[in-house]
Amino acid sequence: MKTTDKQLLAVDLGASSGRVMLGRFDGKKISVEELHRFSNDPVTLGGTMYWDFLRLFHEIRQGLLKSKKYGKVDSISVDTWGVDFGLLDEGGYLLENPVHYRDSRVNGMLEKSFALLDADRFYQITGTQFMEINTVFQLLYLAQNRRELLDRADCMLLMPDLFHYFLCGEKSCEYSIASTTQLLDARRKTWSKEVLKALGLPEKILQPVIPSGTPLSPLRPDIAGELGVDPMLVVAGAGHDTQCAMAAVPTQEKDFIFISCGTWSLFGTELPEPVITQDSRRLNIANEGGAGGRISFLKNIIGLWLVQESRRQWMREGKEYSFGELEKLAAEEAPFRSLIDPDAPEFVPAGDMPERIREFCRRTGQPVPETPGQIVRCIDESLALKYRLTLDEIRECTGKDYPVIHMVGGGTQSGLLCRFTADACARPVCAGPVEATVYGNLALQLMAAGEIGGLSELRSIVAASEPVKRYEPENADAWAQAAGRYRENIGKWERMGK
């Protein structure tokens, strides 16, 4: 490991906000400083929900401007949510703003795909959790409803790769973000010709898959010149934010459970090879690509989106609550009064989340949560119990036990959710770092530069950079009884929804 000081920029774009973060590496620790924060607000136009790509790119440029006073920056890398993309024509021009994964165009596309490709075969190839938001179903919609747009497209770039292209001019497709598409052969780590052919999707728009941590090109001269910044190197680190966070889990354990908790909760473990079996298919568990060619064997669970969207509704009603206030109100409410399935389809779109939660409880014969405290308590308990079910599913598929849960990301700021998770899973929860995605983004740039030798060293550096907080289970027996009831109810609720 080298000891020269390095300065790097991590652009971390989430579903509701983005940041440009400055990282410094002294050879032993990484320190981070926020340079620029901004909201990420989708725009609905003509009935379609878009990402405001032009504004997001402008905000990245603002972050570059603010970095000038800190001196030379060596490199920059962008990570984002998964599955979404932009289409470029032959001249490299964006054909339209990328469409938001919550847009209704994907409704029904999952079932339509099964008429073209057997679901079991589909999973055997890709090893991916079936979710209608996945790239493959967005492309299938275009193939069946907007074929002219696909015909005009010369190239599809997933969101982090799209930002990298406009920063440095190089088209690429990084492994971790490619694995979110459900177009990748999980074992071969290349695009599946079988899936593309069966669904009638054009192979020509896909770029070759490159490893996580690949150096690209320097910042475009026109951008560097206009902003007056150094032509820093653009690095394709781990474009999928989950895999940045996964790389930064501060542990040296070979077998560990992680929860990357933010708008979504990504719950899983790290494996050397994909697990694609009848059990993993039945349980709908994904094999996503990560740094070092590792596999994240995980499930996507709707996470703090439920609290975020509830808070937005209360703000629309003129009630301003901080997240801390909501957590305090939830802690004062009675336990296990009302529970939901966080992944029920009605909770995916934006809108009046508290009313949807109340309606779910009415429909399932439970007490209806009325107050903000009761709503947030219902969400947090339901998430913790869903984590418990997912832990049991992961253990069933891998045959391994996991004595500790590592929770990283913004959700670790909720002490209530961390405590509930420890109780529900009957295991200690090691919470932190909050900025795991940023640490992973920066550290993978350092790996690309030869400053860090591998994942083990990377995780040791993250562990030295920020302390974690440990939560011990305190009420595991009551939660075990609640988990048993919850497991039975989940099956009942799923049958009611069909």
Written overview of the protein:
Strand 17 and strand 18 (295-302) form a beta hairpin. The longest helix has 27 residues, at 372-398. The protein contains 19 helices and 21 strands. It is globular and about 60 Å long. The chain has 498 residues and is α/β, with parallel strands linked by helices. The strands form six sheets. It has a seven-stranded mixed β-sheet with strand order 17-18-16-15-19-20-21, with helices on both faces. The model has no long low-confidence stretch (mean pLDDT 96). This is Rhamnulokinase. Residues 259-449 form the Carbohydrate kinase FGGY C-terminal domain. InterPro entries: ATPase_NBD, Carb_kinase_FGGY, FGGY_C, FGGY_N, Rhamnulokinase. Keywords: ATP-binding, Disulfide bond, Kinase, Nucleotide-binding, Rhamnose metabolism, Transferase. Belongs to the FGGY kinase family.
Task: Present the secondary structure layout.
Blueprint: E1 6-13, E2 17-25, E3 30-39, E4 43-45, E5 48-50, H1 53-67, E6 75-79, E7 85-88, H2 109-114, H3 119-126, H4 135-145, H5 147-152, E8 155-158, H6 159-168, E9 173-174, H7 175-178, E10 184-185, E11 190-191, H8 193-199, E12 209-210, E13 214-218, H9 221-227, E14 233-236, H10 241-247, E15 257-261, E16 264-271, H11 278-283, E17 286-289, E18 295-302, H12 305-316, H13 323-331, H14 353-363, H15 372-398, E19 405-408, H16 415-425, E20 429-431, H17 436-448, H18 455-465, E21 469-471, H19 476-497
